[in-house]
Amino acid sequence: MTEKEAWQLLGLSPEAGASDIKKRYRQLICAVHPDSGAAKSVHDAQKLNAAYSLLKKRAVHGPRGTGSHPYSKEQDGSGFQSDAKAAKPAAWDAPVNPHAYREREILHNAEDQDGTVLGAFCIAKGKYLWSLQEDFPLFQLSIYRCSALILDEIDRSLSRNAPFIRQRVQAELSYFLAQQFIDAAASLKKLAREERTDSAGRTIYRFSAMLEYEKTAQHGRTALPRLGPLADQEPLYPAALRRHKLYLKNGAGKELGYLSFPDDRLYYIVIPLFEQRRAQVRIEADSGEESGKCPASGYQRLKLWLRFSEENRSGLPENLSLRIERLLDSYRKAGK
Q1: Residue 63: pLDDT above 70?
Q2: What is the pLDDT of residues 2-14, one digit of tens each?
Q3: For residues 134-149, average pLDDT
Q4: Which residues contact 188 (CB under 8 A, 6 or more apart)?
Q5: DSSP label at 27?
Q6: pLDDT per residue over 172-226, tens digit each?
Q7: What is the average pLDDT across 122-140?
Q8: Within 10 A of 140 (CB to CB), how many other CB atoms are there?
Q9: How far is it, in rounded angstroms, from Cα 86 to Cα 210?
Q10: SS3 of the chain: helix, strand, coil, percent, to 5
Q11: How far is the C-alpha of 171 from the C-alpha of 284, rounded, in Å?
Q12: Which helix (H) or strand (E) is 169 found in, with range?
C-alpha cells in the first residue's frame, strides 16, 4: 500500500496530523466491526490497519526517505525473519518467528468515537512476534484462542468431548506458545527501568518486581507466613522453579514465596529465561520511596537486576515446538 492509497482509504489529506489520523481510523474501524454487519469486515479491517500503521509512522518519522523502516532488513538482529521479505505489504507490521508451532490472530479493540471499547476482532493472522504496539491482554487472548483451536482439532479428530485434563493442558500449551511469540532479548531492553553494563561490557537490566508470599494451610484455611517485612536492600536468592514460578529464599535459606511482577509482560519473558538457564540475577528488597509491604499485604516490593546470556540456546523456538508436540501427544492419549 502506498501513502497515496492510505490517504485515500482514510479520506484524509497529507496535511492531516497524528490526532486527525487516529480519530478517522477509529471511526472507520468501528464501521467494519463484525457486529456492524459490514461485508468483508476482516479484509476491510486489515486494509485500514495497514493504512493507519503507514500514516502513523509518517506522522512521527516524516515522509519516506527520511529514515529507515524498523523492519527493512530480512533479519531483525534477533534471528527472526522480518515481514519485509514478503512480496506485498503484510496486514500487520511486526517480525515473524518461522519456527512457531502455529499461526495466531492479531486482535484489535474496536472503539467508538468516545473511546469506548466495542469488542475485539481479528485483523491479521500469522506467526507474528508480540510488539509494544500490540495490546498485551489482546496478545494473551490470541494465545488462548490459538491453544483452544489446537485442542479442539484434536478432540474433533478423536470424536470425543474434552477430557478432564484439558484445562491443565491448555494452560501449559498457552505458556509454550506465548514464548514462541516473544523475543526476550528485544523485550528486555524495551521494558527495563534501567540499563547499564558491567566490567565485561555485558548489559544488565533493572526491573521492578515483587515477592508473592506463599500461603500455607492453617486450621482448614490459607494464611500468610508470620514474618516481619524484609529489611531494605536485604538480598534474596533463587530457590527452585516449580510450575513456571521462580521461588525465592532469604539468606538463612528459608523459602518465602515466588517472584512476581507489576508488569504482567515480564512474567512471560523473565521466567522462561530461568527455565532455559539464560539469566543471572541479583534481587533485593525495595523499601525506598514506595515502602515495601509486609507479609500481611501478601507481597514485598523488590528490585531485580538481570543479565541475559545469548550462549545457552536450549529451549528456544525449535525445542519449544518439540515440547508442544509431546504435550499434545499426552493429550491425545488422555482417556484411552
Answers
A1: no
A2: 888 888 787 787 8
A3: 94
A4: 205, 269, 306, 308
A5: H
A6: 999 999 999 999 888 988 999 889 998 888 899 999 999 998 765 545 454 545 5
A7: 92
A8: 17
A9: 42
A10: 40, 25, 40
A11: 30
A12: helix 166-180
pLDDT band, very low/low/confident/very high, at 16 (cuts 50, 70, 90): confident
User: Which residues touch 250 (CB under 8 Å, ≥6 apart)?
Assistant: 230, 234, 235, 236, 237, 256
- pTM here? 0.69
Element of type H or E holding 146: helix 136-157
Q: Which three cell numbers stand for residue 180?
A: 514462541
Residue 13 burial (CB count, 10 A): 8
Quick check: 1 and 54 in contact, CB under 8 A? Answer: yes
* C-alpha span between 108 and 130 (Å, rounded): 13
Q: In angstroms, rounded to a whole number, what is the distance separating the alpha carbons of residues 121 and 105?
A: 9
Residue 230 has pLDDT above 90, yes or no: no
- Give the position of cell 516473544: 182
> Beta 117-126 vs 221-223: how paired, if at all?
unpaired
Site of grid cell 467508538: 112
Q: In this structure, what C-alpha cell is assigned to residue 251?
A: 539468606
Cell 537486576 appears where? 305
CA distance 139 to 145: 10
Q: What is the length of the chain?
A: 336
Collect all residues with Cβ–Cβ distance below 8 Å to 105 and sequence separation of at least 6.
Answer: 122, 124, 125, 142, 145, 146
Asked if residue 83 lies in contact with residue 97, where contact means CB atoms within 8 angstroms, the answer is no
